[in-house]
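Why do we bother with holo predictions? Because pocket geometry can differ from the apo form. Keep that in mind while you read this record for zinc ion.
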Amino acid sequence: MRLHFLGATRTVTGSQYLLETDRARVVIDCGMFQGSPHDVIRNRVPFAYQPGEIDALLLTHAHLDHCGLIPHLAASGFRKPIYATRGTVDLTRLVLLDSAKLQEEAAQSHQRFATRNPDRAAAEDEATTAELAAATTEDPAAATRAASPAAVTALRAPLYTVVDTNTALALFHGIDYEAEVPVAPGITATFMDAGHILGSAIIRVRVTEGDQERTIVFSGDLGRPATPILRDPTLVTTADYLLIESTYGGKIHEPEEEAIRLLGEAVRLTSDAKGVLLMPSFAIGRTQEIVYQLNRLLGAGTTPHLPLYLDSPMAQKATAIYRAYSDYFDDDARALIARHDAPIDYPDAIVTNDPKDSLAIEQAARPLMVVASNGMITGGRIVQHVKALVADPAMTLLFVGYQGDGTLGAHLQQGATQVRIDGQDLEVHCQVRSISGFSAHADEPELLAWLGNFTKKPRTTFIVHGDPAAQAAFEPKVRALGFATAVPGWRETTELT
Ligand SMILES: [Zn+2]
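The structure, written out:
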């Protein structure tokens, strides 16, 4: 049996692995590459296998960097079952339909640009084609396939459409945690709670080939113990082979109590200043956690009851899915529900679905709080709020999540005194604060503690889903625990003996 590493190798996006035996082929995750152009171009590199020859796809969770290429796979001929927890199926529908819509819109806007500026568009296409060729040279066979003339015209087309996405969504099978499900000849899968976002899973794959049986554990993205709402990551004690994520290799998160204290402080300061507390937040996971914490602070009498605007239709849909899966919640959250408290609701929160209501928030009576998407201010409704309020000293911009290099969020977080939004130069006079203690990923000590539960060490532990620096920091510590490690490269294949 062989394992092919097709994404999230020495980077944090594009998760995709192919497990191949003499009888079956199963893909685990089929994520989109995000971030730098060098990464993003890999979304256009042909699949490393024939999609029509895959027997099943197993999906760890609904984040785009794990599920984002599934409609592309379906459009390329994949028609077999996709297994995920029921919660992941519902969240993935939301994520993929949104992604398809954004891609169709981007393709249309490029089309308009190309019609007005044919020369510039042609030059850009040429540069992108060269990048694609460079990206594919790591796989000569794929480079040959990508060299077809059709590649140039296809570069600006959406990777997939809403129609492709609906085709893919029809292939999903929602399964329960901890149920061992046969997924292909000689292969079963068990999904265990990963505590990362609602529905997230660690997947244990059991493979029988001849008289040989092997267990391969895919950690997916691992959450943190004691995160609100979600259960703790499942403790795994054995595997013949293990793939572990390493996003926060070499890093330690701020303690959660400190994060909650800083959040409370920001609310009180906003109240005193009769200002606006603006929190850019990812729609799935972080928004629900922030609302949970604001509700707890209010319930404990730590903060005054400021109006809260929830300004993200996507987050509202995600919250509805969270509510529908309260059986996935941890004991604390379920105890709140049993006492008729709604753990992921804030009293009298104002939900703004209509864009007009969103724009009206700036004129509303202060003090007030806003949670809006997206989390790194690279798009979405948050951008207009930042534009309207960035020069207002009574506004506190509070970062509660990771800011990617080069994003507007990162610039503001690093203390930019001037920003350019929609071609307009604006001076920054608002307060800027950051909380680093809310994270959906285990930090290094938490990853090592999770590994410490293995009573029998895997033959090899593959370190994936991490940037090179994080992996370089993490790997020696994993080895020091007695694990045999490997850091696979993109499109590397390994024989599982
Ligand atoms: Zn994730």
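The mean pLDDT is 92.
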